[in-house]
Structures are given as structure tokens and as C-alpha cells.
């Protein structure tokens, strides 16, 4: 949903609906002019790529198989509940199972820019495009997995030419470790934080209430 808090052209007159919203000029019954994009199951964080025309990234937590990173466009339908990642779902028989789609079927909805399955993680934790002084993270969208605490990134460039999900290693005192080992707890409730003014990135493990500042990356 997208609104203008300073406007007044909504039904109740207490906020505005931007003219750029895809349904802002529609007058039919049941039209929700506040909608900007749809077809998400459980969007987890929005972030903007300031260096590339403020593209908007939205991660979407899957039902049972696929975790998504989407690039949102006005009026885009991202497929839920008949799509999970680049796969189809039989909503009548089994919401937990996915199946392969033909090229024609894939084109019916907006597919994710990047995705990973539940052999890799369990629930995507939305991140941010890093723009700070750590060269190894520059121009990367850094995100994680809520349950396992794994950290990932995808490379970001104007052409969006690489949709591969890469895993980041974690080290303490020069020794490779994991967020689970650092906290001593299996489920991390991991979140990513980013200070857009100071360009500093943080990893938050809600399970033990700790905030980890990323100070080195290689």
C-alpha cells in the first residue's frame, strides 16, 4: 500500500493517494486505490537502492518451500497464493507442495529477482543495499535468514545481471563460526539493521537481545 500522509483525496479525506499509484484513477466498485503492488504472502522489510533510481526491494517469506527477494514495480502481481518463487502451488490440494512451471506460466506473474529454498534456510529476513566503507560489501544487498541466522548477499548493479544468492561467512577472533554458535541458541530471530546516514550495518539476534555491528568484511 502507498499513501500520502499530507494529502486528502482518500475516501475519508484524512490522507492522500499518490497519482502514481497504479489504480489511483480507477473508480470501479471494490477498487483499492491505495494498492501499489500485490501478490505477497508475508513481506519482510522494504529497502531502496538509492544509487539506482531508488529501486525498491521487498523480501517475502514463503509458505513451505521458497524464500523470495523481489524488485517491486507499480501494479506488479507477485503471484501469491498460486506462486511461491518461480514455482506453482496447487491451492486446492496442497499449499505445502510446489511444482515446476512452463515458461509461459512463469510469465503470468512477476517472478522474484533472487530466491532460496528450505534446504538453505527457513524464513528470509529482509536487508539493505550496503553503501558504506567496507569494500567487500559495497553494492551488495545484504540479508539473512530469521531462523538459522545465516547471512547472505546478492550483487547489485544497474543491470541486475546476477541473481545468485551468496552466503556470508561469520568469524570471531579469526575463527569461522555461525550466529547459532555465537548465541548458543538454535532459532535466531535474526534481523538486519542499517543506518542510512552513517552507512553502518548491524545484525540483530532478537533471541538474546544483542546487536552486532559489522566492522570488517573480506
From TrEMBL:
Gene3D superfamilies: TolB, C-terminal domain (2.120.10.30)
Transmembrane segments: none
Entries under Pfam families matching the protein: GSDH (PF07995)
Coiled-coil regions listed in the entry: none
Domain of life (superkingdom): Bacteria
InterPro entries (UniProt xref): 6-blade_b-propeller_TolB-like, Glc/Sorbosone_DH, Quinoprot_gluc/sorb_DH_b-prop
Domain Glucose/Sorbosone dehydrogenase as annotated: residue spans: 16-159
Positions of region (Disordered): 1-23
PANTHER family in alphabetical order: HEDGEHOG-INTERACTING PROTEIN, HIPL1 PROTEIN
Name of this chain's protein: PQQ-dependent sugar dehydrogenase
